[in-house]
Amino acid sequence: MEWLPTAAASGGPWALLGGVIVTVVGLVLKGLLVPATHVDRIVKAYETVIAEKKDDVTAWKAAHAVEVEANRVLRDQVDKLLEHSQTSAHAWQAIKAAAERADDQA
Fold first, then answer.
1. Is the CB of residue 46 less than 8 Å from the CB of residue 54?
2. Which of 53, 51, 73 lies closest to 61, judged by CA?
3. What number of helices (H) and strands (E) belong to the chain?
4. What pLDDT is attached to residue 86?
5. Under a CB-based contact definition with an 8 Å cutoff, are residues 80 and 87 in contact?
6. 45 with 37: CB under 8 angstroms?
7. Which of 10, 17, 64, 106 has the fewest CB atoms within 10 Å, counting from its CB?
8. Cα torsion angle, 23, 14, 4, 6, sign
């Protein structure tokens, strides 16, 4: 094993495995093992997916804001209807009481 560096020979199989990993990573980074155009295509595809996810999140946030506003408007309308209902009930009770007093006096 004279062709192995002394650090790899004395380090055993772990040093050899580390050397292989460093070599493969270096070749990938240089574009010799995997072509740079392929890596660029993969990166561009990931960027497209990330942009679509961001657009989805923005759309969901906008939809939520619209829903919150719609619920606020609906609550305001229901409150007004309840106020009118209470006013009508009080008016009806007053008319009924006035009619009963008129019947009692007659």
1. no
2. 53
3. 3, 0
4. 93
5. no
6. no
7. 106
8. positive
Q: DSSP letter string over 7-55?
A: HHHHHTHHHHHHHHHHHHHHHHHHTSSS-HHHHHHHHHHHHHHHHHHHH
State how far the Cα of 57 lies from the Cα of 40, in Å rounded to an integer: 26
Check if the beta carbon of residue 95 is closer than 8 Å to that of residue 103: no
Contact yes or no for 26/18 (Cβ under 8 A): no
Tell me the pLDDT tens digit for each residue of 19-35.
889 988 888 888 788 78
Q: pTM here?
A: 0.51
CA gap 68, 70 in Å, rounded? 5
Each residue of 41-94: pLDDT tens digit?
A: 999 999 999 999 999 999 999 999 999 999 999 999 999 999 999 999 999 999
Interior/surface letters 89-104, b for 16+ CB within 10 angstroms, e for the rest: eeeeeeeeeeeeeeee
Residue 79 one-letter amino acid: D
